[in-house]
Each structure stands twice: as C-alpha cells, then as structure tokens.
Amino acid sequence: MDEVSAVIAAEADHLTQLDAAIGDGDHGVNLTRGFLAVREAVASSGDLPPGRQLILAGKTLVSTVGGASGPLWGTALRRAGRALGDAPELDGARLADALDAALAGVVELGAAESGDKTMVDALRPAVAALRAAVERGASLAEALEAAGNAAAEGAQATVPMQARKGRASYLGERSIGHEDPGAASTALIVAALGRALSA
C-alpha cells in the first residue's frame, strides 16, 4: 500500500488529465486521497496478515473516495483480502486467487466487461498473465512483471475504444482516442504491487 500510495500521488496530475478528457477530472485527486488514507490505516493497524490488511484497505477506500473508484477498488481489495483469509504470507498461487476474486468483484459491481473501456481492460489481462506465469512455474517476481506488462498493454488498448460504461460512455464517439483513467490507474497499481512484492 505504501508503494501504491506513492505512485498514485506521483501520477495524480496525469490521471486527472486523462479523466478531464472523458470524465469529471477528479480521478487522480480522489485516488491520491484514498490511498493516503489506506496507507495510514494499514500502518496503524498492527501486525495483520496480508488478507486482513487488504480488507481494511478496501473499507478505507470506500469511506474516503467518491465516484466509482472508491466502491470498485474497495470491493476489489476486500474480495482479494477474503480470498487470502488469514494466510501469513503471499505466494504466486494465493496472489492469483486473490486477483481473480478482485476482478470478479469489480465485474460484478461495475457490470463491465473487456472492451467497455474501463479498469477491467487492464485488470483482466493482468490477472490472466499472473495466473499463466504461476502455472508455468515462474517466480513471483516474474509473474508480477508479466501481470504489470499485461495491465499496461490493456490500459493502452483502451485508447481506440468507445466507452460503454461509466461517465465516459455519455460522450459516445468522443471518448475514442483517450486512455481510460481507470485502466491507467489500474496499470499503475498492478506495477506498484509487483515492485513491492519483488523487493
């Protein structure tokens, strides 16, 4: 969460610019505030196992981030945390299960699928890449690198799409030619996860 909070804060202006083009221009500000609150909540929570930390992080995001990002990321982190349970540490298989659960929560809440120009376009390929790497016996660092690359490619792939969900969908064809801010922030978060767990 420290790594995620740092990268979101560093990229807040960029995320806000992306959101200003096809949304309401507050994505970077909202996520920065939310993950700063998460960082503080987790730091003061004592020695919780990873799953419990993620559940706490999800609850914190829901209570501090407006718009769609708070509920979506809050759901994702809480589902991931529940999938991990009280396991004392992460390995590749557990992390793949947690990200599968996070993706399922996002899809269920947002009713979005691949190609709708949302965070799902970055998260789904990241989850698939991580699972494939783990199943072929890659190290956790290698699996996370594959997930990060897939998320970044997925975010870039939203540029030519027409939005079918969220505020951007109101723009119709005018949403074409812009990277989806939710997909962009998702790629940043997946990459931050990789850096943190590979360190």
What does this structure look like?
It is a single chain. This protein is 69% helix and 0% strand. The protein is built from nine helices and no strands. The protein has helices at 2-10, 12-22, 27-43, 50-64, 69-84, 92-110, 120-135, 140-156, 181-198. The chain is globular.
Descriptive key words:
199 residues; mainly alpha; 9 helices
Helix and strand topology:
Elements: H1 2-10, H2 12-22, H3 27-43, H4 50-64, H5 69-84, H6 92-110, H7 120-135, H8 140-156, H9 181-198
Using DSSP, what is the number of strands? 0
Can you give the mean pLDDT? 93
Q: How many distinct helices?
A: 9
- How much of the sequence lies in strands comes to under 5%
Give the CA-based shape.
globular
Q: What is the chain-wise order of helices and strands?
A: HHHHHHHHH
Alpha-beta content class? mainly alpha
Task: Estimate the helix proportion, in percent.
Answer: 55-70%
Q: For the CA atoms, what is the radius of gyration?
A: 16 Å
Summarize the structure.
This protein is mainly α and 199 residues long. The protein contains 9 helices and no strands.
